[in-house]
Amino acid sequence: MAGHEAGIEGSGEDAMKRRDALSILGLASLGTAMTAIGFPTRALTASNESWEDVVAAGKKEGLVVWSFFGAPGDAVERQAREFEQLYGIRIELAPSRTGDFEARWNAERAAGKASIDIRSSGSPENRRLAARGLDQSFGTLPAATEPGVPWIIDPLVDVKSGNGYTLHTSAGGYFILVNNRLCPPENGPRSYKDLEDPKYKSLILLSEPIGPSPGSRWAAYAWKVYGDDHLRKVINNVKALTRAEIEAPKQIARGEYGIFIHPTQVGAADIWRLPKPHPFRLVVPEDGVMMLTGGMSLLKDAPHPNAARMFMNYILTKSAQQIAADDAGGPFIRKDVKPRIPELAHFATAKPFPENPDTYEFGSKLFFEWSAKAEPHLKAAGLKT
Amino acid sequence: MLPLGLSMLVAALVVYPLGMLIFGTFWSAAPGQPGTLTLENWEAVLWDRATFDILMTSLAIAAPRTLLALLLATAFAWCIARTNVPCKRFLEGLLAFMFFLPELPWVLAWMLLGAPNVGLLNQLLGTLFSGGEGLINVYSYGGLIVLGAARSAPVLFLFIHPAFLAMDSTLEEAARMSGASAWRTLWRINLPLLMPALLASGILSFVVAMESFEIPQLLGTPANIFVFTTRIYDLAYGGHVANFGAAMVLALILLALTGSLIVVQSRLLRGRAYTTVSGRGFKARPMDLGSGRWIAFVAMLTFFVIFGALPFVVLLLNSFMELSGFISWDMFTTKHWSNALGRDEVLRSIADTLMVGTMAATVGVIVSVFISYIVTRTTWGGRKALDMMAWGPWAVPGLVMSLGFLWAFVWLPIYGTLWVVVLALVARGLPVASRFFTTTMVQLSAELEESARIHGASWSRTFLRIWLPLLRPAVVGAWILLFVIAVRVLDVVVLLAGPGAHMLSTDIFLWTVTGRQEVASVLALMQTALVIVGYIAARLLARRVLQQSPS
Q1: How confident is the model at residue A25 (pLDDT cuts 50, 70, 90)?
Q2: Helix-strand-coil percent breakdown of chain A, rounded to 5?
Q3: Is A82 an 8 Å CB contact of chain B?
Q4: Which of A126, B119, B273, B384 is deepest in the core (most CB within 10 A)?
Q5: Of B242, B416, B498, B496, which is closest to residue A66 (Cα–Cα)?
Q6: What number of other Cβ atoms are within 10 A of residue B295's Cβ?
Q7: Which residue, A11, A41, A18, A19, is CA-closest to A29?
């Protein structure tokens, strides 16, 4: 399967290169003429350009189309508005799920009508784009190289290691969510390893390990560290699978299920609004926090590459990061911002899960191979047919 | 000339996108992307034992769901159209209201109401009697069937009701005078005459059940119940690399299944007469149910309270809660409403949705009237092919059909505008609207048209003065139906809506998947209000046109 994909991607890449070469040869003079008369054209990135050149070209482009997973929440809208005020460049929001984004973008590119500049999502999606050569260099971003910034992880970790052009813009961590009535603190799990215990039989709600779901992430991480038998034992304790991961924390709070593996801080932020004392508790696992970074890619064929680079730079600034942290449970990547709910920001300081494999290889390929290890156990437990 | 032109239009709207899908099943990558011709997608699906299992599961849910929905809709239509059940208009309005409620928030409301043990209904039952809290479980086969049927029945009612209205009551009276009971009359007179409408509605309902996505995705998955559409979703969206080819193979299997049902339908109806409206006029006198009229009224009201009012109340309360699903006074807030109403994006979505809905419904009705006319009233050689073509977009799950529309329409200059969404919605609505008109037209006698032509009326004059007035209830019904579909539908527009075309349905979906159902509830209520406005406007306009038109 992987070889087959590589073949397709390779041929696509070659075709793209040929097309770009023809474009450059045939249309260079036309492009010069169009630029001279003020027609917006796609900027060709030069390695020695100054940031001022990028800003000038970006302002001429005047627009960034930003695709991201989910709905345009308060932070997204505030960031877009602030960027517009700072640079006079309009942000067009294009929220969509991963599959919808890919389907649409593929079709647009095939028709020569690519409309999207930037895609933000969990890093596995961005790294998958990188692995297929579907992103492009964003050059040097002043905010990413600003000295003395305390990053949770280096935003340029993939770029520096030569693994494509994913810009890491946020970091988040998973934990275990437990209902206090169904699973009182004295008997509750303290670590991922504890979830093997048969006393948790029929208490666990698991995000279905499918695609890049949180359940896939748990299965992949847990298999890597604890092995196959651990997956089997935990899955034997699972009462149900869910694809409504955002709804799951509420189901725990209502007492529908006892334990949920595993919500992000964003998911738990919703139930944090419930009156205290909360009927649930967040368990930061003693064996470590499984991390997930959020990525941003400058897409191949982006129609407004310079304006997009300006936005990528902006998103790393303290102001934009603080806006992200102002959202309840909002993930961020700079340690010098103040989270609105500190209890949900444990990922910034907690011990990472052993061999926390949030690396390029993991995000781009192994993630899906490792998470598939759960499949036979799910079938054996009667949770999947 | 008209049949040929219309066929070309329908081909462009339906066959071309479907052709892109069929091509996609033989291509190793998404159409437009570099790849090679291959049979791998077909082999992977057809040799997979899971395909057969999923087909059986889908049928096990779709068949009883269809039967139950058809039974409910026929009973409702009969009571309202042919009996003296009280408050008919009120009951009709309640059923229409149920049809207006958007599906996704409706399902989420049912997750709150019918979750095992902690669902609001289970809690209520638990306080009433011991063990009552475990009675309802929406995460089950029963949940999928009952909720699916409750969702389909109001739509089917819209199909069957006009057919009951168009039936000559002298036929019933003749049966009653010959000593037949009310039930025997219904069984031997009404139902056989309604066969075209019942068959068309049954097939439509079956197709809807087979391609239903939200209900099985949210309620089936936790119970380990996987159907065709959830499998298609897994293939298209769930893996490392989207396997659109295999997803489309599954969609084509579904298309073959529903296509064969349509063939069966036309065979069953061939050579039989269903004309009930002829040149001699007809009366629609209600049947007296005696004291049973109040029982029928209470039964219909109960259906509405359980499946319409309860989820609506949950939706309404959710929109005023700090966090959806946690309903209490200390969680009360109006901020979701003030936030939504203060956002330019929401107002733009409302305006775009209204525009798209109006255009799609109007164009869809015009095209569908002519399709049905050609299919039922002409001997044109290509009429059967035209009929089959019109069914296409409904027989393929919207999840996949949206890809066909995207690949077909991305090349058009109007891509990225409202118009491309309108085109897709017209295509999607064709099977529903043309079915609507076809079932009405087969009940109209040819002698009406013939007598007009004998008196020297041109074809266009005959169409305008004879056909349209007789079709008026169907035109209003179809317009409302298409408008509601256009405003509510998500799967078809999810890939086409975007910066150039904002739709409330995609906004609701995105807020829902992001976990902000309280915001989604606000938008869903706005969407419902929009649909009601369209409904009332259509009824008022129809009444006005009728008053102005010569008798």
Answers
A1: very low
A2: 50, 15, 35
A3: no
A4: A126
A5: B498
A6: 12
A7: A41
**Strand stretches in A101-258, DSSP E:** 118-122, 167-179, 204-207, 238-242
Taking CA atoms, what residue in B is nearest to A364? Answer: B240
Phi, psi (rounded to 5 degrees) for B282: -150, 155
A248 membership: H or E segment, kind and range: helix A248-254
Distance from CA of B237 to the nearest CA of A (A): 5
* CB contact set of A306 (below 8 Å; sequence gap of 6+): A43, A54, A55, A57, A58, A60, A61
Whose tokens are 């048209």? That residue is B449
- For CATH 3.40.190.10, list the domain ranges present in chain A: 47-170+293-346, 172-292+354-380
Rounded (5°) CA angle A306-A309-A313: 145
| pLDDT tens digits, one per residue of B392-415 | 777 777 777 788 888 888 888 888
CA distance B356 to B502: 10
Interface of A with B in 105-144 (CB under 8 A): 106-111, 113, 115, 128
Question: In a 10 Å sphere around its CB, with 0-12 CB exposed, 13-18 middle and 19+ buried, how is residue A199 labelled?
Answer: exposed
Mean pLDDT of chain B: 82
Could you give phi then psi for residue A259, rounded to 5 degrees?
Answer: -135, 135
User: Percentage of chain B with pLDDT > 70?
Assistant: 91
Q: Are A348 and A338 in contact (CB under 8 A)?
A: no
Domain ranges of chain B: 2-274+307-548
B181 Cβ contact partners less than 8 Å away, ≥ 6 residues apart = none
- Judging contacts by C-beta atoms under 8 Å, the chain A residues touching residue B403 are 103
Please name which of A228, A335, A382, A247 lies closest in space to residue B516, comparing C-alpha atoms: A247
Tokens matching residue B507: 């906004």
Q: Which of B14, B35, B12 is nearest to B25 (CA)?
A: B35
Q: Identity (one letter) of the amino acid at B241?
A: V
Backbone phi, then psi, for A137, in 5-degree steps? Answer: -65, 140
Select from B118, B221, B240 the Cβ nearest to the Cβ of A368. B240
Angle at B219 between CA B215 and CA B225, to 5 degrees: 100
Q: Which CATH class is domain A47-170+293-346?
A: alpha beta
The residue-averaged pLDDT of A317-345 equals 90
Residue A160, Cβ neighbours under 10 Å: how many? Answer: 9
Amino acid at B115: A
Query: How much of chain A, in percent, has pLDDT values that exceed 90?
Result: 46
Residues near B462 by Cβ (< 8 Å), separated by ≥ 6? Answer: B449, B452, B453
B237, B403, B410 member nearest A211 (Cβ): B237
Give dist(CA B259, CA B111) in Å, integer. Answer: 34
Residues on chain B touching A270 (C-beta within 8 angstroms): 323, 515-516
A375/B contact by beta carbon, under 8 A: no
Kindly report the CATH class assigned to A172-292+354-380.
Answer: alpha beta
Distance set, CA B476 to CA B197, B205, B243, B354, B437 (Å): 17, 21, 41, 17, 11
**Closest Cα in chain A, distance from residue B328 (Å):** 10
Q: Domain B2-274+307-548: which CATH class?
A: mainly alpha
Test B323 with A73 for CB contact under 8 angstroms.
Answer: no
